[in-house]
Write a structure and sequence with these properties.
Blueprint lengths: L1 E5 L4 H11 L4 E5 L4 H6 L4 E4 L25 E4 L1 H9 L3 E17 L12 E14 L5 E5 L7 E4 L4 E4 L11 H12 L8 H16 L3 E5 L4 H14 L3 E7 L7 H12 L3 E6 L1 H8 L5 H20 L5 E5 L4 H11 L23 E3 L7 H10 L4 H4 L19 H29 L10 E5 L5 E5 L2 E14 L7 E2 L4 H14 L3 E6 L13
Parallel strand pairs: 1-2, 1-3, 3-4, 4-9, 10-11, 10-13, 11-12, 13-14, 17-19
Antiparallel strand pairs: 5-6, 5-7, 7-8, 8-9, 15-17, 16-17, 17-18
Helix pairs in contact: 5-6, 6-11, 13-14
Length: 521
C-alpha cells in the first residue's frame, strides 16, 4: 500500500484518490506520524502531500526525518518537496513572484519520475516558497522561469519530489508521473480493483463476525445499503437489517427499499412501521432543530427496541465511510487528518446494552462505495441516490408537519424527481457524465407554510404554493441554483398544479449557497 502523509486539509485526499484510481491501495495519515508508526503500517511507498504552510513558519508541520530512511521510495509534492529538501539539508527560499496556476517546466537530464513525459510541458503550480538549493546527492530534473527546482530526485535513495502538483488534472502528464512512481520506481502491482476489494471485505467480515449476529440500521441511503449488500454477501441471514419507517421518506421509497432487501438479498429484514409514533411526536412542532432532535432520538428508540428483542446480536454494522474517519480525526487533531474515530461515541446505547461496531466501508471514498454497490448488484436508484436528509420530508415542510401537508409534498416531490431525473438522464446521454457540469445535483420540493389566491376554471382558489429547489454542487458545502431550461420548469409547474390537489402555484428558488442553504430548514 501507499501511505500519504497529509500536510493540510484535503491535499492528501486527492492524492490518495489518484493512487487508488490507478488500482493501488492508498491511505492517509497525519504528517506528524513517527517513523516507527509508519513502519508498522508497512507501506510500499510514501507520498508527502502539499499543504498551506511555509516551511519556515513557526508552527510549520515537520516530519520525522527517519521517514526518509525507511528504505521505501518517497515522493513529495509542493510542500512535500520543500520539507524533504529542508529535512535533508537543502534550502528553501521565497521566489520572486510566486507561481499560481499553469506554468511551463523544462526538463533537465534524466529522470525516472518524469520519464516518458515531454521535455517541455505544462504543470500546475501554487506556491510562493521554493527549493533554492537541493540537498546533497539530489539532482534537479526540471525548472521553470521562476522556479529553479521544479522537480528533483535522488535515485540512489529513491527520493523524488516536485514543486508542482502532478495530482491535479491541470497537470496533463501528472498521471504518467504517478504511474512512473508506482509501477516503475516502486514496482507495485495494479491489483486494487472491485473484485479484490469485495473478496477482501467479505473475508474480513466473516473473520470478525464468526457465527454471531449483526444488526444494521438501514435507511435506504447509499452507505447503509452498500454495507447491507456487502454483509449479505459475507454472512447472509446472520445480518438483521432494521428499516425504521418514520413516514417521512419520499413517495414509494419504503416499498423500494423493502423490495430490494427482501427479494434481491438474503438477509433478515425488519420493517418497523413507526409512522404513527413519529406523527404524534412531531405534531405541532415548528422549530427545525427540534424536529431534527425528535426524529434522530426516536430512531435510536425504535432501533434498540428491535435490537434488544433479538437473540445473540454481537455487532452493529455502520455505514461509516473514509471521509467521515478523516474528518472526525481532523477535528480531534486540529486540522490534520488522522485515524481517530470520535464519531463512535455518538451512538446512544441504552444502559446495559453494547454492541461491537463493524464498519466495512471505513476505507472507501464515496464514489468507491457507489462502485462497490453496483458491483454487489444494488440498483442504480439506490447507488446514485441524491443526498436526502435523515429527518426526511419533515424539514421540507415549513412549520408543523401534518398528514395533509405530507401527502401534498410527497406528490409534488415525486413530479419534481420524475421530470428532473429524465432531464439528468438526457444530459447523461449527451455528455456521458453522470455528475457533469450542468447536471442537477440535488432537487426536491419544499412546502412553505402559506396560502395564496389563485383561479382554476371559474373558481377562486386559496391554496398552497410549492417551492422547487434544484442545485448544482459537488460537495454540498457550496451550491448554485440550477439554470434549468424554461420548458423543463414549465412542465414541472404545469404538472404539479394540475396533478396535486391543494396546490395552486409553483415558485423556483433562485438563491445560491451561501447565503442560503440547500434545504429550507
Ligand atoms: P444545507 O441545507 O445545510 O444541506 O445546505 C447540505 C446537504 O446536507 C443535507 N442535509 C442533511 N442531511 N441530516 C442529513 O442527513 C440533516 O439534518 C440534513 N440537513 C441537510 C442536504 O440535503 C444537503 O445535501
Amino acid at each position: 500500500k501507499v501511505v500519504v502523509l497529509d500536510f493540510g486539509a484535503q491535499y492528501g485526499q486527492l492524492i490518495a484518490r489518484r493512487v487508488r484510481d490507478l488500482s493501488v491501495y492508498s491511505e492517509i495519515v497525519p504528517c506528524d506520524v513517527s517513523a516507527d508508526e509508519l513502519r508498522r503500517l508497512n507501506p510500499s511507498a510514501v507520498i508527502l502531500s502539499g499543504g498551506p504552510a511555509s516551511v519556515y513558519a513557526e508552527d510549520a508541520p515537520k516530519i520525522d526525518p527517519d521517514v526518509l530512511n525507511l528504505g521505501v521510495p518517497v515522493l513529495g509534492f509542493c510542500y512535500g518537496q520543500q520539507i524533504m529538501a529542508v529535512t535533508l539539508g537543502g534550502t528553501v527560499g521565497h521566489t520572486e513572484k510566486g507561481e499560481y496556476g499553469a506554468a511551463q517546466i523544462v526538463r533537465e537530464g534524466d529522470s525516472s519520475l518524469l520519464g516518458g513525459t515531454p521535455d517541455e510541458q505544462t504543470v500546475w503550480m501554487s506556491h510562493r516558497d521554493a527549493v533554492s538549493e537541493v540537498p546533497e546527492g539530489f539532482v534537479v530534473t526540471s525548472r521553470t522561469e521562476t522556479c529553479p527546482v521544479a522537480s528533483m530526485e535522488c535515485a540512489e535513495r529513491n527520493l523524488y519530489a516536485t514543486q508542482f502538483h502532478p495530482e491535479v488534472r491541470h497537470t496533463p502528464h501528472g498521471n504518467d508521473m504517478l504511474k512512473n512512481f508506482l509501477f516503475k520506481i516502486c514496482g507495485l502491482e495494479a491489483n486494487w480493483n472491485m473484485d479484490s476489494i469485495i473478496e477482501e471485505s467479505v473475508t474480513a467480515i466473516r473473520e470478525k463476525v464468526g457465527g454471531d449476529r449483526v444488526i444494521l440500521g438501514l435507511s435506504g441511503g447509499v452507505d447503509s445499503s452498500v454495507v447491507a449488500a456487502l454483509c449479505a454477501r459475507a454472512i447472509g441471514k446472520q445480518l438483521t437489517c432494521v428499516f425504521v419507517n418514520h413516514g417521512l421518506l419520499r413517495k414509494n421509497e419504503p416499498e423500494e427499499v423493502e423490495e430490494v432487501f427482501t427479494r434481491q438479498f438474503d438477509v433478515d429484514f425488519v420493517h418497523v412501521h413507526a409512522e404513527e409514533r413519529y406523527a404524534e411526536l412531531l405534531a405541532g412542532v415548528t422549530d427545525p432543530e427540534q424536529k431534527r432532535k425528535i426524529i434522530g432520538s426516536q430512531f435510536w428508540n425504535e432501533f434498540f427496541s428491535v435490537a434488544q428483542d433479538l437473540d445473540g446480536v454481537k455487532f452493529l454494522a455502520q455505514g461509516t465511510i473514509y471521509p467521515d474517519i478523516i474528518e472526525s480525526g481532523a477535528r480531534k487533531t486540529g486540522g490534520k487528518a488522522s485515524t481517530i474515530k470520535s464519531h463512535h461515541n455518538l451512538i446512544p446505547f441504552p444502559d446495559g446494552v453494547h454492541f461491537d461496531l463493524i464498519e466495512p466501508l471505513d476505507r472507501f471514498f464515496k464514489d468507491e462505495v457507489r462502485a462497490l454497490g453496483t458491483a454487489l448488484g444494488l440498483p442504480d436508484h439506490i447507488v446514485h441516490r441524491q443526498p436526502f436528509p435523515g429527518p426526511g420530508l419533515a424539514i421540507r415542510i415549513i412549520g408543523a408537519v401534518d398528514p395533509e401537508k405530507l401527502e401534498i409534498l410527497k406528490n409534488a416531490d415525486a413530479i419534481v424527481r420524475e421530470e428532473l431525473d429524465a432531464y439528468n438522464a438526457r444530459l447523461f446521454e449527451e455528455t456521458g457524465e453522470r455528475n457533469g457540469e450542468h447536471s442537477v445535483w440535488q432537487y426536491f420540493a419544499v412546502l412553505p407554510d402559506v396560502k395564496s389566491v389563485g383561479v382554476m376554471g371559474d373558481e377562486r382558489t386559496y391554496a398552497r404554493p410549492v417551492i422547487l429547489r434544484a442545485v448544482e454542487s459537488s460537495d454540498a458545502m457550496t451550491a448554485d441554483w440550477a439554470k434549468l431550461p424554461y420548458d423543463v420548469l414549465a412542465r414541472i409547474s404545469g404538472r404539479i398544479v394540475a396533478e396535486v390537489p391543494g396546490v395552486n402555484r409553483v415558485a423556483y428558488d433562485i438563491t445560491s449557497k451561501p447565503p442560503a442553504t440547500i434545504e429550507w430548514e
